[in-house]
């Protein structure tokens, strides 16, 4: 493999570290996005019906799921300079917890933010208007992999099963990790076509 940064060839250890990062980023975000998409389909049956009738709306639905329940809830960052955020002074090198999940539920930006509305990110209104995968130099490397993989997985679930519903008597598991929005368990019942 011939990869370089600033004219210097990357060492094998650097390439392996990058591949591990990409694998972890793509795996965690994809797993969590599929989990949340299935939960949204179960909790909002109208979304399930809409996607069955119009599968081309899957990208907009997934963007809404990303906004509704971000695969990664937040990350710690360090301020690079003195600044002000929302009227609060932040000093250089001060630790910050950036909560993407909270930003995605801002009622000043999203009407009824606690609800899933698959039409919220329809083509006419634009897509990806949320910080679920971060932004700028901190944008998630696995974001596109998560979108593609989740779209395929959820599409196949809808294609192969005529009904997806929550299995009665099971409580959803707690969070797998604090920084991640992955649940330990969400049990569903499916009816094959």
Describe the fold and architecture.
The protein is globular and about 55 Å long. The chain contains 5 helices and 8 strands, in the order ββαααββββααββ. The chain has helices at 12-43, 45-53, 58-68, 100-103, 143-160; strands at residues 4-5, 8-9, 74-78, 83-85, 88-90, 95-99, 161-166, 188-192. The chain has one domain (8-71, 111-192): Cytochrome p450 (Orthogonal Bundle), CATH 1.10.630. A hairpin with a 2-residue loop joins strand 4 and strand 5 (88-90). Helix 1 packs across helix 3 (58-68).
- Helix-strand pattern: EEHHHEEEEHHEE
**Given the helix and strand composition, which structural class is it?**
alpha+beta
What separation lies between the terminal Cα atoms?
Answer: 45 Å
CATH homology superfamily name: Cytochrome P450
Strand arrangement in the largest pleated sheet = 1-2
What fraction of residues sit in β-strands? Answer: 15-25%
How many distinct folded domains? Answer: 1
Shape: globular
Uncertain ranges: none
Helix count, DSSP H or I runs of 4 or more residues: 5
Query: CATH topology, what is it called?
Result: Cytochrome p450
Question: Can you give me a brief rundown of this structure?
Answer:
The protein is of the alpha+beta class. The chain is built from five helices and eight strands; from the N terminus they run ββαααββββααββ. It starts with a strand and ends with a strand.
Descriptive tags:
38% helix; 16% strand; 8 strands; single chain; alpha+beta; Cytochrome p450; 5 helices; two-stranded antiparallel ribbon
Secondary structure blueprint with pairings:
Layout: E1 4-5, E2 8-9, H1 12-43, H2 45-53, H3 58-68, E3 74-78, E4 83-85, E5 88-90, E6 95-99, H4 100-103, H5 143-160, E7 161-166, E8 188-192
Antiparallel strand pairs: 1-2, 3-6, 4-5, 7-8
Helix pairs in contact: 1-2, 1-3, 1-5, 3-5
């Amino acid at each position: 493999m011939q990869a370089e940064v600033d004219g210097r060839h990357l060492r094998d250890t650097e390439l392996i570290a990058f591949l591990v990062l990409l694998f972890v980023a793509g795996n965690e975000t994809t797993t969590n996005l599929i989990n949340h998409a299935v939960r949204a389909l179960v909790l909002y049956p109208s979304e399930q019906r809409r996607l069955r009738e119009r599968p081309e709306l899957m990208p907009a639905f997934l963007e809404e799921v990303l906004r509704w329940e971000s695969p990664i809830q937040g990350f710690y960052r360090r301020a690079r300079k003195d600044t002000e955020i929302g009227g609060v002074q932040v000093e250089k090198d001060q630790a910050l917890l950036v909560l993407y999940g909270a930003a995605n539920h801002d009622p000043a930006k999203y009407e009824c933010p606690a609800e899933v509305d698959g039409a919220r990110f329809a083509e006419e209104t634009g897509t990806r208007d949320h910080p679920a995968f971060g932004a700028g130099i901190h944008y998630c490397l696995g974001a596109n992999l998560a979108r593609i993989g989740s779209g395929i997985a959820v599409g196949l679930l809808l294609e192969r099963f005529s009904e997806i519903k929550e299995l009665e008597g099971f409580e959803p598991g707690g969070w797998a990790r604090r920084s991640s929005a992955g649940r330990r368990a969400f049990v569903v019942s499916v009816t094959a076509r």
